[in-house]
Amino acid sequence: MKLFKHITVLLFLLSTSFVFSQVEFEARVSKKKLGVNERLRVDFSMNQNGDNFSPPSFADFDIIGGPNQSVSNSWINGKRTFKKTYSYFLSPKKQGNYKIEQATIEIEGETYSTSVIAIAVTSAVSRPNDPNTAQTIPEGSIHLVAEVSKTTPYLNEAITVVYKLYVSTNTGVSNWREINSPKFNDFWSQNIEIKGLKIENGKYKGEDYRYVILRKAVLYPQKTGTLEIEPLSLNLTIDIPTNRRDIFGGRLMSQVHKTVSAGSRTIKVKPLPETGKPLDFGGAVGEFNFNVTTSKDALNANESLQAKVAVSGKGNLKLFQLPKLNLPSSLEVYEPEYSEKINTYLSGMQGSITDTYTVVPQYKGKYPIPSISFSYFDLKTESYKRISSNEAIVNVIEGPVYGASDNNIVAEGAPNQRSILNNDEFVFVKTEAQLVSKETNDFFNSTGFWTGLLAPLLAIPFAIVFRRKKEERANDVVGNRLRKADKLAKRYLSDAKKALGDKEAFYVALEKALHNYLKARLNIENNAFSKEKSKELLEGKQVDSAVILDFDTLLENCELARYTPITNVAMQQDYDKAARTIHTIDKQIK
Questions:
Q1: 20 to 30 A from 312, CA-CA: which of 45, 193, 205, 255?
Q2: To 10 degrees, the CA torsion angle through 194, 211, 200, 220?
């Protein structure tokens, strides 16, 4: 009987030990029904340590926090208690019925899994009460604001957008990331670099806040009417104080996540007034200076000088064309070389743009460089202004006289001279006819006879040479491919010039011209063409890095132009730059 009693106690202890040693791995959620604007907490807990934890995919949720891992290990009355938890904070993507699928873990060689949990997501609730959601933050503690310098600008007038994040003094932001970025459609835009975030004190709606400037951008509206600036949205990690304190009495902080948006802004763009608009107005808006200068005012024939047409000041410098310089036809004038020195600040573009003409006189004389005008819209006076250059004279001191064989012709631009006539002026005109009849039948000894006889014989060597040259040219595979592709590049450049004003057609033709030219010059196969490959080959041909950068920039412009608004001025500048770059590579390539 006593033995039976001992056996019973032993079996009871063994069964109790077995019960306490059973593995528990389960999933718990903070709620099974929540609004689409609420947050869900999911805990995966186990009573023994394991390896290779694999969470579910959470395909219908955004993970805004976690996994956070916590471990507790204690001994109470000689009994060990162990608990390990993986926690996730989720945000539902939309309304509907979803499932938290199984999670798995390996414990002592065995794989355990949790049960599937059904979750119902309803429409947004007015006041979520989940303590783990960002809505527990006091109202008005965080604001993302887009400050626009002017909401009713003129066409091509610079405005600025500054994005500021205002945070109340009892709240902190430890991290942020952009969810939606504004694209600034229908604006020419440039972001202003911010070097480090600087925390400043300020006021928002009369209340004290701390704020940081997250982004700055300068915008030039490219069309009139009502335009919209898309919102900037951020996901923030926010530190808020709790009622708990650490062992030193300091208040503990809790981290939650919140999405904030600056909201869209509406800009009403005014057209430039028609009253007083000059006929030659090219779209310049701002405050400018204008001048035309020459590098020399006296030189010899066949020497060169540079004539510069320059606009400097503050305004939309990259968005209009300079007036053309008209010179006498007797001067040899090359296409102008465009250059710019422009900095973009928060107040807009500042700097200068220049067209430099190379001029080569051929004859002795004095040549006028006529006055030309530049007009722009002045934002301060809201009126049009015109600046005219001074007329200049280029004196060609030494060189041939135009029409030297005839004293009645002088160089264009030279002072008018009186025409002098003499009695022999028309001596070459015969006033009496002296006709002589000449008849001959001796064809066999005539020039025509011997020419007809010997010409075919003399033509045989030329025909042989021509045929050999033709065969050599036909066998020159590389040369033929080079010439053919070069013709294609010129043809596409011509197509691009014809398509100026049509953004899609222009940039397609320009991109084809650039590709065909480079493939021809560097002997690149179609399937091997890439920016990296072309850059490597150009560097191997000792082409300047600045020219290679210009070529890459043009290719990028062709790609980006399909998705961004482009002005006619920008298209013209890209065409001129492409022609210059191709010409420069031709000269530098070795």
A1: 193
A2: 40
Measured between alpha carbons, how far is residue 294 from residues 152, 306, 330, 393 in Å? 41, 6, 17, 10
Mean pLDDT by 10 residues, the chain (590 residues): 50 44 83 83 86 87 80 68 84 88 87 90 66 51 91 95 88 79 88 86 86 93 92 82 67 75 90 93 95 92 92 95 87 90 93 94 89 95 94 89 50 39 43 55 67 76 77 62 64 79 81 79 63 77 81 79 70 84 77
> Does 144 lie in the same domain as 117?
no
Q: In which domain, by residue range, is 62 found?
A: 22-125
Q: Phi-psi bin for 169: left (phi > 0), alpha (psi -120 to 50), beta?
A: alpha
Quote the number of domains for the chain: 4
Measure Cα distances from 322 to 88, 158, 201 in Å: 61, 20, 45
The reply to whether 251 and 147 lie within a common domain is yes
**Under 8 Å between Cβ of 45 and 115:** no
User: Do 143 and 121 share a structural domain?
Assistant: no
234: Cα separation from own chain's centroid: 23
Cis status of the peptide bond prior to 67, with omega within 30 of 0: yes
Q: In CATH, what number is assigned to the domain containing residue 161?
A: 2.60.40
Q: Does the residue 26 lie in any domain?
A: yes
pLDDT in tens, 99-149: 889 899 888 888 898 989 999 988 877 655 544 444 445 556 888 999 999
Is residue 253 domain-resident? yes
Q: 558-580: per-residue pLDDT in tens?
A: 877 766 667 777 788 888 888 88
Last residue of a domain, one of 82, 102, 125: 125
- Let me know if residue 444 belongs to a domain: no
Residue 235 and residue 299 share a domain: no
